[in-house]
Write a structure and sequence with these properties.
By secondary structure, the chain is mostly helical. Helices cover 70% and strands 0% of the residues. The chain is built from seven helices and no strands. α1 crosses α3, α2 packs across α3 and α2 packs across α4. The model has no long low-confidence stretch (mean pLDDT 88).
Length: 113
Amino acid sequence: MVIDYKRIGRNIREVRHLRGLTQDALAEKTDLSSNHISHVEIGSSPVSLPALLKICEALEVTTDRILYDTLTQPTPQMSVAVAECFEGATPQEASIMLAVARSAKQALQSMSK
């Protein structure tokens, strides 16, 4: 399993922006340095678990929100969740749901570039 630290950093930056915080403000709330926050956000240094927990607490988000798309392989829990979403859907509904998911993925990927 490979962890995408650049994606983790982008997720942190995205939420920080949504909360209207500067890197300095986030650093103050977490007792981390602004320089460390900057390195985490650009992915040049991996974030430690204690630092990640501090950041998530300061941003008022779960670690899932920051980590959910950073693994290169889907987790078993994700596969189950997807299967549950499609359970009971007609073929037409499943086709529409799949098209929506693909469109959402494409839009999200274009936003992160």
